[in-house]
Amino acid sequence: MVRRKGWQTDLFAQVTEKYRAAVAVLLLTGARPAELAQGVVVHVIGDSLEITVSGAKLGAMRGQPVRTLLVTRDSPHAEYLAMIAGDNKVSVSADAKR
Asked: What is the rounded CA–CA span in Å between residue 76 and residue 94?
């Protein structure tokens, strides 16, 4: 498989405003669409983003109910989320269905 450098930035630049925050979360976390439908919480902490995802594919022996990631703000999509969150926590969600 050929990987093209900068593909995430190029993809993010083409996304419409309606889905911009949702795509930013997907690019930074790899969250499942069902997790995004539940809402993903983004909080700015210094030069990083704290992103909390509630798990969607849970079972007795699988999945994580909640996971929190600390992501650097070194991409346009991370900076976009930081801008919309500001000094607050913001919930980003999108319908998982077409």
From this structure: 20
Looking at residue 36, its pLDDT comes to 92
Read off the pLDDT of residues 71-93 as tens digits, 9 standing for 90 and up. 999 999 999 999 999 989 999 99
Q: What is the pLDDT of residues 27-59, one digit of tens each?
A: 999 898 889 999 999 999 999 999 999 877 766
- Alpha-carbon span 86 to 78, nearest angstrom: 12
The answer to whether 31 and 40 are in contact (CB under 8 A) is yes
- What the block records as the tokens of 90 is 């913001």
Sheet holding 89-92, edge to edge: 66-72, 48-54, 40-45, 89-92
Strand partners, 43: 50, 89
Q: How many helices (H) and strands (E) does the chain have?
A: 4, 4
